Amino acid sequence: MNKKLLLLFLLALTLIIPAYSQDNDTSDTDTDWKNWDNPADNNWDNSGANLLDIKIKGTPTIDINYGSSKMNLKSISDKFAKPGMLELRLGYTTDKSYNGSDYVSEYSFKFFHLSNFTANLSGNQNSNNIITNSWRFGLGWASGFGYDLGNGFEITPYYQSSFDWTMVNMQSTPTNPNDIYFTDLFNKTLRFGNSFQGGVQFKFINNLGIDASYERSIVYSRHLFWKWGASELIEVVGQGLIDKFVEEILDSTPSVVPVVNFLLKNALSYGIYELRQDKMNWPFETAAPLSFDQFKLGINFVF
């Protein structure tokens, strides 16, 4: 994809989205004492848990994903054997109806994840390309708006972002000696990275759903904090403007919000991650990252 067109798209996207509304102060002034005889106060749904005195909102969730992955490192001429991936996510989900609509719901999922990417899961362990076995863990959050169609059935398009740490084990040596230096930057070393994911969740009953998604993750050869932070800030500001824009649409036409929110947020991140394929801390002149692209199917249990 033409990088100049992508850059123009991103600039236009962040310039045309207005930040109209201001956040309202919805904090409670008296949360320590409750009238437990009042049904509104005696509500155990989505109660979450207390961890080190930090309130974790939502209901416990287990999410299991399987998919196929493609690895890419633009600094080398050799190719990677495509690994399969298996992922476990543990976290808390909130899913509530939006006040302005009877059929639009608001979804949030905050989680810890652990993933394994290995050629053994894809049948490519005997490939002539570079064979790898990678482990990844991190923290992430997903959000979106969905359609509540009744009887426990919901369709929720969502956007997801995460911070990751990845350990790659190069199980074979590149055929090109010049590539060894670049692969050794990642080999058997814990490296920091980021990822985004766009997907659609289908919930058939209150406690069970399936998920189809696409994820792009990048692994940095070095964590250049200030350049990384400036690059992240560009994406965060863009996503924040989209959030404000979506809030305005919620007030006028809530029925289109699930689709508009999904398209805008994922389009912005996809464009930025494409630019980071050549420069890991775009727009700064930095090395190319190791990237993973995966299509995933999952099943999630909400307790």
Explain what you see.
The protein is 22% helix and 42% strand. It has 303 residues and is α+β, with helices and mostly antiparallel strands. Strands 3-4-5-6-7-8-9-10 form an 8-stranded antiparallel β-barrel. A hairpin with a 2-residue loop joins β6 (132-150) and β7.
Structural class: alpha+beta
What is the percentage of strand-forming residues? 35-45%
Cα Rg: 21 Å
Q: Detail the poorly predicted runs.
A: 4-9, 11-53
Q: Tell me the series of helices and strands, N- to C-terminal.
A: HEEEEEEEHEEHHE
Main sheet strand line-up: 3-4-5-6-7-8-9-10
Number of helices: 4
Shape: globular
Largest sheet: 8 strands, antiparallel, barrel
The oligomeric status of these chains comes to single chain
Instruction: Quote the distance from N terminus to C terminus.
Output: 42 Å
Arithmetic mean of pLDDT: 84
Helix proportion: 10-25%
Distinctive features:
alpha+beta; 8-stranded antiparallel barrel; two-stranded antiparallel sheet; 4 helices
Provide a short characterization of the protein structure.
This protein has 303 residues and is α+β, with helices and mostly antiparallel strands. It has helices at 3-16, 180-184, 225-252, 257-275, and strands at residues 49-51, 54-56, 59-73, 84-97, 104-118, 132-150, 153-170, 190-205, 208-219, 290-302. The chain starts with a helix and ends with a strand.
